[in-house]
Every structure is written in structure tokens, then in C-alpha cells.
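G., the chain you wanted modeled:
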Amino acid sequence: MIDDNCNGTVDEGCTCVNPPTANAGSDAVICSGSNVTLAGSIGGGATNGTWSTSGDGSFSPSASVLNADYIPGAADILAGTVTLTLTTDAPLNCTPATSSMIITIQENPASPGAISGPTQLCNPFNTTVTYSIAPVAGATSYTWSVPNGTVLLFGQGTTSITVNWPFAAIHAGVVGNVCVTANNSNSCGSGTPSCLGISVQLSTPVTPPSISGAAKACPTDVVTYSIATVARASSYLWTVPAGAAVVAGQGTNIVSVEFSAGFTGGPITVSAVNGCGSSPVRSRNISLNILPASASISGQNSGVCNATGVSYTVTPVVGAASYFWSVPTGATIASGQGTGTIMVDFSGSYGGGAISVVAQNGCGNGAARSFTVTGAPGQASPITGSVGLCANQNYIYDVNTIAGASTYTWTVPSGFVINSGQGTKTINVKAGANPASGLTISVRASNACGTGPIRSINGISITLCPRIGEEGAMNIVAYPNPVNDLLNVSFTSDKNQDVLVTMMDAAGRVVLNDNRNADEGVNKFEVSVKGMASGIYTMQLRTSDTVQKVRVVVE
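Predicted structure as C-alpha cells:
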């Protein structure tokens, strides 16, 4: 009697009522490098199954998936077989079920070794050539292929073949690969082919075409150089200058060249090569990429005494990575060093000098560009004012504002009087009393750092101009005189009153008649002389108690 559950009572009938079952599937044969997809199944009381291997392979996605892929390991492939076992779980009072399958792993044919035989042939007409390999373990036959134009005479299926080339093929040129694969009798077929490139030509290649690529380089640059392919060439031989090295592509029509610190310039050359020899070389000179001077520097060139934040900008230089600036004593770069624009501060005693800049790249500093900057003001613009003057009359002379100027010093001829404006850019001058010619009025600006160049107006003359009325009563000033566009007229009125302005030509004909309202004090107005014939005119200003005339010359 059996006490099934060990509770002291026998013959209770507690046995496995639904035993589990497992089926691993049929044995399989695979080629080396391939995986096997499993098709396991379970039944009875089994709810899951787990795969295990006698070797070192793995299951994907996991060993608990019945239709997992098995990936043989190196030991499996070396052994040639591996056993896979499917094991189920076990319900109460039942024993797990197991089932196994055997996977046989067949080797792929090995790749043949290197092919022996010539690679470069020159006019091998009426010549047979042999290509061969060492026998491959396990191989039962060999399959050879040859380039178009090549005649395989005999040896197909063996480790050695004999070939030749008709003259037409040699004349056209033959370039390609001789290849061979090893075969075996199992289902794993052929191995990886071994190939040997060959070139069969009638003559040497022609000179390569021009070399493309940068004509200038700097240390650390890596530059690509190339030529178009050359007929009949099987390879290309490149040479580079000292301090340069071909780092990729030697033997092809495209190379990468790296330049080092020792490079100072020189030729890069290439020749096309085949079995008949080398072509003439093609050369291109490569030089250091020393940058040129910038076209210009823009900025204030004078009157910078005690100025701050003055901007200077260089015209960009192609290929520049940065810019290095230098400034004279008394100047300081406040910001922008290394860029194309700097801000400069100048001292109150800056004496002048050149601001310079060089463009920089991997070759170092390029050529310098300089720009002279003075602390003192620059030369004034041309002086505006009359050159044909009437004796004892007042005239205005003026220049544009000069950058950095603190004062303007005017010089007038002997006998002239500066009525007002000395120290400014505009003066009121009374002409001398006596006729004269070839006179000069000049001005120069200055500041704490110095005095600028002189600007002059030359060819000033004085004549005795006819006037009617009490001399100086209205203090008329007409300028410029001679005039060709706008005549500026100023006069003094002792009260608010009407003034009739009349202008007559030399024949006494009235060409202008205009009524003006005058205020007490100095009055100003403009008269356009455009359209008037050249000649001498008389301008008359009439009030209720005064008539005064002045001569005007129209050019």
C-alpha cells in the first residue's frame, strides 16, 4: 500500500492525472554563420517551456520563447553540432517533460588566399599568363572570372588558370579583376572570392590634366588635390613638397595632403602609371598662404586729441581668421583687438602716428596696412568768401567745422580788419582801403595736441567800387563778389522800415525790383543771379531817407 500524501492513510489515489509533454522539433542542418528558428511545442499539463543548449550559443529574444532563434556560438561552430533541449514545468505530482534536437553546423567554404600573377602588363600580345592560388581546405572546385577582353584558355575549376589577350583588347586597354571562389559539395555553396586587379595596356599614359585644389596652404591645413582620370592609367604617383605629406589617396586620382610647420612652399606633382611605365608629370606650385594687406582702414584721421572710443575698421581680408592691431604711443586699444573693428582712446598729449593692422591665419601674420592719425586738427575745407572786394567793405569768410579743433586762427592781409569771429570758423572782415591784388586770407585750427595745416584762399583783389549815399550809413556787405549763383546781402538799419532793393545792369535797365521789410539792426537776404548775363551791375537800397548803392560783378 502507498501513502500518497504521507498523511498516514493509504490508497488515497493521489497520482499525476495530466502529465506534461514537450516536442523540441526535428533535427536541423545549417551553414556556419546562420541561425536556426526553433519550433518547439508543449502539451498536457505544461504551461511553459524553457530551452537550454549544450554549447555556447544564445536564444533570441529569450530561452522561454518556444519559437525563439538560436544563434550558434564559436564553440558550437568549432564542434560542428549542438544539442538543444526543451524542458516544461510540472503540475502537482507530475514530472517535467523534456525533448531534444540536434543542430549540425556545416562550414562555409574558406576564402581563397592571394592570387599569384602579374598585375601590370605592357603589350602582352602572343603571350600566355598564369594566375593561381594555393588549394583551399575542403574545396571541391574553383570558379574563376576575368575582365572583359581577357581569354581564359584553360584551368577553370582548378587552382590555376592560363589566359591571354587579343591585340584589339590590348589596344583598347583592359582594366579589371581576376577573381576566384572556392566551392564545396555541401549546401553551403561558395566562399568569399579572392580578387587581383590587373591592367593590360599598349603604351604609357598621357600627361595628367591640370591639378585642382588650393594654390596656397598653411601648417595644419589638410587640402584635397585631384585630377581627372587618365586613359590607360592603372594608378597615380603623387609627390609633395617638404613639410607636406599625402595622408590619403596615394595611387588614386584624388589625394588628401596635410601641411606641417616645415612647409615653406613648393610643387605638388602627379604622374599616371601602368605596366608600360609612367607618364610625364603634371605639376602645380603651392605656396604659403600669407595674407595680403587689407585694402584700407577707415576712421577719424585727425583731431583725436583726448578723444575716447574712436572707431577704426579694416576692410575684410579673404581667409583671415583674426586681425592684430597696433597703435602709437599715447593711444590705447579699448576694445576689439582680434576683430575687424577696434575702439581707441587717445591722451591729451597724443603727438600722432600710424595705426596698423595685419590679418592672421594659420600661416601667421599677413602684410600690414597703416593709417596715419594726428592729434592736432586736420586741414580746413576750402574757405568760402569773395575774392573780388570793394575797398572798405565788410565780407564774411567761413570754413566747415574741423574735427577736434578747439580754436581757429585767421590771418588777413595788411590793411584788413577782422571785425569779429577770430577763434571761430567764421570771420567778418573789412577790406583794406587801397586797391591791391594777389592777396591771401588763411586759417588753421589747433587743440592741446598741436596745430593743423594752413588753408588759404588766394587771388583776392581790392578795387574802388562806386557807391552813392552816405558812406557806411547802411553798412552794406554783398558777397561773394564776383558772384555766379546766390548773392548774400547784409545791411544795417537804424529803425524798422521798408527798403526798396533795385538791381540795374550797366545800361541802366532794372533787372530786379524787390521791396523788403527791414528791422532795426543787421538784416540779411539772398538774391539769385542765375540767368543774368555776365557783367557789372549796381544794387541800390533805398529807404525813406537814404539811398546807398554797391557794385556787383556777375560772372
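The two ends are 153 Å apart (CA to CA).

Shout if anything looks off.
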